[in-house]
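Progress report, Aim 2. The chain analyzed during this reporting quarter is listed below.
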Amino acid sequence: MIYLVEHGANLNVTDKNGLTTIMIACLHGNLEMVKYLVQKGLNTYVKTKTEETTLMKACEGGHLDIATYLVVDMGMDVNAKAKNGWTSLMKSCYEGHLDITQFLMNNRADINAKTNNDGITALMVACNGGHLDIVQYLVNERVDVNAKANNGLTPLFFACDVGTLDVVKYLISQGSDINAKDDVII
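Predicted structure tokens for the chain:
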């Protein structure tokens, strides 16, 4: 990349979804490249067409060092939302990155944030991903195990839907309502 930059490459080019050079570096875990691109004037606050941030890409890729750099050194907002309402916390929970989830929570991530159209929470996506360690962490942080998405589905439904028995058992042990009704019409 440095060679390309030294020979006039346009660093502000995006793909059809608005993914930038710095976002790709964040997604793939190249902290030194991220710092280099910042030094060259690239904006860490740039967003994709769906309004995903560089921090979301670092969280999706599981790169705590880059997430830390973006939040601590660059002042990124841990609660920024994409167009669909997904946050960096939701990305890290879905992908199963406990260390990033803990980091975001320690930096005031909103544990109760919901997606825009369907009201999905970080706990629901952690359950959907089958990540027991993250589910346990979020419950220990006092998330509502009976929170409902807009259609009435609870975290327990998401765990049952993907068949993660360990998550199902844990949620029930923490007070999940096994008789909760949803609004889904089959």
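The chain has two domains: 1-91, 111-186. The chain has eleven helices and no strands. These observations will guide the mutagenesis work planned for the next reporting period.
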